[in-house]
Amino acid sequence: MAHPDGNRADDKAVSIVIDGRQVNARAGETLLQAAERIGVTIPTLCHDERLAPTGACRMCLVESSDSRRMVPACRHPVVDGLVVQTETERVARHRRGLLSLYAADVDVVPGTELQAHIRRYGLDPGLPAANAPRAGRPDDDNRYVLFQPESCIVCARCTRYCDEIEAVSAITLAHRGSQTTIATVDDVSLLDSTCELCGGCIDTCPTGALVERKSAHRQATFPALKPVRTTCNYCGVGCQFDLQVDAAANEVVRVTSPAPGETTNDGNLCVKGRFAYGFIGHPERLTTPLIRDEAGELVATDWDTALDRAAALLQKTAARHGANSLGFISSSRCTNEENYLVQKLSRAAFGTNNCHQCAAT
Predict the structure, then answer these.
(1) How high is the pLDDT of residue 130?
(2) Can you name the residues that pair with 254 across neighbouring β-strands?
């Protein structure tokens, strides 16, 4: 419902206090959103800003003046006059206890959100390791996504991502209690489910329970990898991602998404963008232009020579057989600007409409 002045009802400003600081928040916001805007860090595990908040992990509990119990900051709405404390001894004790339960329940993977929280907030010692009987899918023969149930805290970020963002619902929570796990219908392979193998479940997982299958054996080295931001070249959309590079071996180990909100793709990728990076270091990849010598054999040359040869042969063919004897084929892996230049070359320079590229619209 809009107000007469044009503002929406849920844009009404409210005043709250967070850790002694006066904050002008908006009605409809959560405590987590209000805190993040002023630089106050509240730890989370099940939260992804692209997903509807569930308050499942209990990592974000804080003290609030409207409740005698601690409340989940990711779900608790702001109201005028609210006083919130995020760093009290009660909150710290809760975080240590909760992380101790998680650490006793799962294998903590290096470089994950869970490990980062443990390092920052600490543990309460003395909890023995538990053997949670969560089932995996050891017979899943897909090439890309590996589920490691021994590292899963059942926060449901992966299943919610699959449902709310990808809208395919290939995975879900199955069973109950300590046996709750991430499963497919009838435990079939992801290849036999509605899964699109986008890998978004891997990227949103806070514990490393979901990982790229072909780099799983190097999971312990992930924190040491160097991220290199680049643009995917598989189509003209322009999705950005981070190549995770082993600098010593000069090798791309995996691809990860930027944080949601940083790029146009909002942290989402398709199966090719996330997994099809093997061509980068493939021994058959062409790294220099080739032309045929007098014997018809391909030999390496420089770009000027190769372009001059191509231009001369195109002009010779057009002069002998006419412009419509030529055809120009570009690629969806080029940018929109590069594809535009190819059709300009075809139509303006050579006078033919015989041009095409596989993502033409």
Answers:
(1) 82
(2) 244
Domain boundary among 267, 285, 303: 285
Looking at the structure, tell me whether residues 232 and 280 fall in a common domain: yes
Classify residue 244 by burial, with Cβ atoms within 10 Å: 0-12, 13-18, 19+. Answer: buried
Q: Which residues, at least 6 apart from 16, have a Cβ–Cβ distance to it below 8 Å?
A: 22, 23, 25, 34, 78, 79, 80, 81, 82, 83, 84
Radius of gyration in angstroms for the set of CA atoms belonging to the chain, rounded to a whole number: 27
Give the model's pLDDT for residue 10: 52
Range of the domain at 306: 293-357
Is-contact 121 99, C-beta < 8 A? yes
In a domain, 122, yes or no: no
Q: Is 187 exposed, middle or buried (0-12, 13-18, 19+ CB in 10 A)?
A: middle
Do 280 and 255 reside in the same domain of the chain?
yes
Q: What is the mean pLDDT of each run of 10 residues along the chain (361 residues)?
A: 41 89 92 95 97 95 97 96 97 97 94 97 86 88 96 97 96 94 95 96 97 95 95 86 94 94 92 93 92 94 96 96 95 84 95 85 48
CA gap 211, 197 in Å, rounded: 12
- Kind of pairing between the strands at 240-246 and 61-64: unpaired
Whether the CB-CB separation of 171 and 184 falls below 8 Å is answered with: yes
Looking at residue 336, its pLDDT comes to 80
How many angstroms separate the most distant Cα atoms in the chain? Answer: 88
Q: What is the pLDDT of residue 6?
A: 38
Query: Do 76 and 20 have their domain in common?
Result: yes
